[in-house]
Amino acid sequence: MPSNNKFRSPNLDIIRIFALFTVVGIHFFINTYFLEQPIDNAQMYILTIFRNFFAVCVPLFIILTGYLMKNKTLSKKFYLGIVKTLGIYIIASVACHIFSVAYLGKRISVLSLATGILGFTAAPYAWYVEMYIGLFLLIPFLNLIYNNLGSKKHKLVLIATLIALTAAPSVLNVWNFASPASFINPSANTHYIRLIPSWWEEFYPITYYFIGCWLKEYGLGITKRKNAVLLLCSVLFWGVFNIYRSYPLPLAAGSWVTWGALPQVMNATLTFNLLLNIDEKAVPKKLHRPLKVLSDLTFGGYLMSWVSDQFFYAKLGAAASAPTKLIWLPIMVSLSFVSALVLSFIINLVYNFIYKAINRYILKRA
After folding, report:
1. Is 0.70 surpassed by the pTM of this model?
2. pLDDT in tens, 30-59
3. Whole-number Cα distances in Å, 123 to 120, 130, 349
4. What is the DSSP string of 119-181?
5. What is the dihedral of CA 154, 233, 247, 260, to 10 degrees?
6. How far apart are CA 300 and CA 297, in angstroms?
7. What is the C-alpha to C-alpha distance for residues 134 and 241, in angstroms, rounded to an integer?
């Protein structure tokens, strides 16, 4: 989400930019028929591991929200903090509709645009905006819970409880202990025995928010080297887990691949902490301004990546007989990523123009 922080760490800008890159990366697997391909060869194994890692995208954004918003309190100024988010969303929705009409040849009315904006469908990737609005409104109250806990131990228990409720079911409730054969070939079995409650799984944004609060206050307390090793091990372990659960069929759409699942909690937390602890001296000061500019474009880039995805993956599909190839991953992700940022730059220019015009009108009327 857009940030209004006066004093910014380049590390946080790097996290935002990397989060957008992984968002665009996860779209590769949606737009190249990866989900329809059997995971039964080396190339698909590698792609599955990459997909597992790119799934840190949404969690990174929510953890960052907790990190930045930990000390926000209930006030008029706080609520005004969502104005730019909503403004960028509305402009991006209009832009997506224009693209749909001009390039995709769809017939769309003003009424469908209005209802699409209100229903968070006008910009096809806007489900995140709908979730974020609710999370944003809860932030002052979530902070009261977290900041008024008596000790570090109590805060750790809070986060552990939420992980148990929202993340643990994703890997504990996916086994059939009554059938030993299901462990040999899990892709052929979808009958699971529930071990723990799973009703709270969809509350994962709150889990990530509090993880962000914890990282702001305490960090993980591990060296960068250990952090990197743990992250590599986690990515490989859960990547292999995905292969094991799917082979020889296409990627199994189990609860372990959802945004709030335990693999994403582990990978995202370790990724965030690693990027957060990059030595700022290793980031030249001349890069701080460009990083800030790119970071401010990430929200619009996220929404507009639908346009760049539609454009480039249509071209790939027409030009390549087998678009789901490892070689296309860096090419397509880079093209869509850069294009999304360019489109976001235009969206932000429009927003700034409208915002200044409204302010001038208000001042004249005052």
Report:
1. yes
2. 999 999 999 999 999 999 999 999 999 999
3. 7, 11, 18
4. TT-SSTTTHHHHHHHHHHHHHHHHHHHHHTSSSHHHHHHHHHHHHHHHTTHHHHSS--TT-TH
5. 30
6. 6
7. 33
